[in-house]
Amino acid sequence: MPGNLSAGSAGAARVAYDLAMPTLIVVDLQNDFLPGGALAVPHGDETVAVANAVMDRFTRVVATQDWHPRAHGSFAANQSGRAPGEVIELGGVVQVLWPVHCVQGTPGAEFAPGLQVERFTRVFVKGTDPGVDSYSGFFDNDRRSATGLGDHLLEIGETEVAVLGLATDYCVKATALDAHRLGLRVRLIVDGCRAVELQPGDGERAIAEMLAAGIEVVTSAELLAERSASV
Ligand SMILES: [Zn+2]
Fold this sequence. Notes:
It contains 6 helices and 8 strands. The strands form 2 sheets. A 6-stranded parallel β-sheet has the order 5-2-1-6-7-8. A two-stranded antiparallel ribbon has the order 3-4. The chain has a single domain, classed as Isochorismatase-like (Rossmann fold). The longest helix has 14 residues, at about 170-180. The protein has helices spanning about 5-20, 45-55, 150-155, 170-180, 200-215, 220-230, and strands at about 20-25, 60-65, 85-90, 95, 120-125, 160-165, 185-195, 215-220.
């Protein structure tokens, strides 16, 4: 501790440090995943206020952004005779076919209205290779390419992340599981997520899978109260 710091300023620094949580990963809070969007997640818009409410408590806020070329192979429209919801193989892995969504440079790919994007310290795009999808914010589904998020967290020495966004049963789950596999402590902010639920119960099953893997599930209220209590 430098000798010219007063006890008061040292104390203030300590409180700030204690309050600061590690990195928040905001997954795919984009127009096409909101009600009215091309691949609307029911009540997806309700996650925006949760994301905004918790951001202040994090040292860093990074975002993932689904960012597809128009010719992306996950779009049913690009697979002759196929409809959204059907399952094919793409890039050597099982692929659910989706409506055209989050095409690069279109309004549907933009972040949700009202989301405090100015708080994002980094944005990692995914799904840019037309030949393979990317649910995880870390790797393409064939795990051959990385988005850079893992390297970023490694470079800054991160050990703990919290995850929220859309959708629980696809990109949130894949991102949280990959973060856990990379050795990070992972907390899912459950009220900051909503599920697609192609099959009823997919959201609950995804949460159970994350819990079983060792991911902690918290509400935003619990997370905020936990740190307030420690001041
Ligand atoms: Zn996508």
